[in-house]
Amino acid sequence: MRKLEYLLLLTGVVFVAATNSPVQQQQQSLSTPSRPNVIFILTDDQDVHLDSLNYMPFVQKHLVDKGTSYRSHYCTTSVCCPSRVTLWTGKLAHNTNVTDVNPPYAVGGYPKFISQGFNDNYLPVWLQQAHYNTYYTGKLFNVHTVDNYDSPFPAGFTGTDFLLDPFTYDYLNSTFQRDKEKPQSYEGEYLTDVLTQKAYRLLDEAVHAANPFFLTIAPIAPHCNVFMNGTGLDKNPVFSFSAPIPAKRHEHLFEGVKVPRTESFNPDELSGANWIRTLKKQNESNVEYNDYFYRSRLRALQAVDELVDGLFARLHQHNLLDNTYVVYSSDNGYHIGQHRMQPGKSCGYEEDINVPLIIRGPGVAENASTDVVTTHTDLAPTFLQLLGIPLRVDFDGAAIPLTPREIEAALETRQEHVNVEYWGFAAGEGIYDFDLSAYNNTYKALRITGKGYNLYYAVWCNNEHELYDMNEERSIANPIKTDPHQMHNLLLDKEEATILMHHPIPKLVARLDALLLVLKSCKGASCVEPWRALHPRGGVDTLADALSARYDRFYELEQPRVRFNECERGFLLHSEGPQFESAGKMFRDGLPWYEWV
């Protein structure tokens, strides 16, 4: 990309070429009858680090063994509605302003999605514009309710059967709403089994239609069971949380199975920062309950596993396996007992942000895995690219490499960072109380993985900082104790060595902080290539590049630091602290400080 074009993208100016490249022309050839189909399975709160995928034999058989697993796939906001809006729009939460699931800042989810104008500008709409039929069943957004489902209807769908609040998370008392019909209650029926039949019906409709299809199936498992006496639109609704409920045929499975006892599980020593450092060690009864909660999650996933098996049986029956991509993921991850936390999500630790992503389909390697860094912001661009639909210039992500050749190239060229952000409180979902200081759970964080380094850096709204070296093993490049479970905050534990990546930790932190400053307010191209925002003349593409002594003054003396002015439960600019500027005091005549000082 030419420098002028790139700078226009950084500043939000849309650049449209007068002619399309051969690749773009090929993507725009939409008339071919061999255009592929997509089935997207999106679970709710499914973990990677608690091993849930290992208890799903049909997912292993049909997806893991026949597709590619993306081990370094991340959500960027670890709670359902902001994460789902990011997934469907290709935009980070600070650009959608859907940042929570509760009022006042999120207005519950679906109403905020509507008020921000996304009902006319998200993936299903773009797919229909490209002559794809689109189908959806299951959970769409929070506070998509029995009262507001038609004001307006979600746009962009050929056929739907949505779960609706306040019954979305009630495994034995669900309510679905099909197409333009009135909501229908399924009291006493097991939710995932009801959804399974709806998914099969929509697949049959899709198969017999003239156009290729994109079918999304969004079960709530393994989310906890929630009884609601109202929704986020009501005054003082009361929500009652309990363990997920499995189907009766699965309720006795996995007796004796426990939460993996990693170093971070209910540790003897405090870890983390902010409210997490105030949590008490869980007693025996609490731990036993959390093990039961964990087994309940595994049991609830068994009906999802059966759904996957039934989908592949039907794809085989319709002779569609060779022309259909099947993508499996979750909106966010989950913790149970890590860092002494009660069951839940909403934090930036690995359990909460590293989520499953498995892709099977034409050209995708079988029984393969990769560590290329991918995020939920990349999914909308990925879907458009694999379906031959031109990409949008305002995406905050980039298409995921799918073929072995693309993945091999991406190991050298793809971004190494994940932007993580959150606003609002962190709710515990078990029967035990959580610390009320979790109300201030607003933070910005950065996950970065490159050759010889594997780091997590975070700034909380109370301006506490965290840095973890997450490499699995010691090496010459990382001589200090490594910390894959994020137990030793290098910015808190003064006894730790002060050298990391052959450099003093303050020097490293200056680079991480500058990168986070760009990402916390980035848009479009600067979210994908943030080093280009800092170094528009090139020469810096990785954290390792930025550590050159040439840039010491630029990073260590002249860059503003990431900080919050105030803790808020939503995205309020006056509380967000310094914002990155690509001109003015950091640049002059298009040159960065270190070029003209």
Automatic annotation (TrEMBL):
Residues 36-389 form the Sulfatase N-terminal domain. It catalyses: an aryl sulfate + H2O = a phenol + sulfate + H(+). The conversion to 3-oxoalanine (also known as C-formylglycine, FGly), of a serine or cysteine residue in prokaryotes and of a cysteine residue in eukaryotes, is critical for catalytic activity. One of its GO terms (molecular function) is N-acetylglucosamine-6-sulfatase activity. Transmembrane segments: none annotated. Gene3D superfamilies: Alkaline Phosphatase, subunit A. The keyword Glycoprotein applies. The modification 3-oxoalanine (Cys) is found at C80. Pfam families: Sulfatase (PF00884). Keywords: Glycoprotein, Hydrolase, Signal. InterPro entries: Alkaline_phosphatase_core_sf, Arylsulfatase, Sulfatase_CS, Sulfatase_N. One of its GO terms (biological process) is phenol-containing compound metabolic process. The keyword Signal applies. Its EC number is 3.1.6.1. Residues 1-18 form the signal peptide. Belongs to the sulfatase family. This is Arylsulfatase. It comes from Penicilliopsis zonata CBS 506.65.
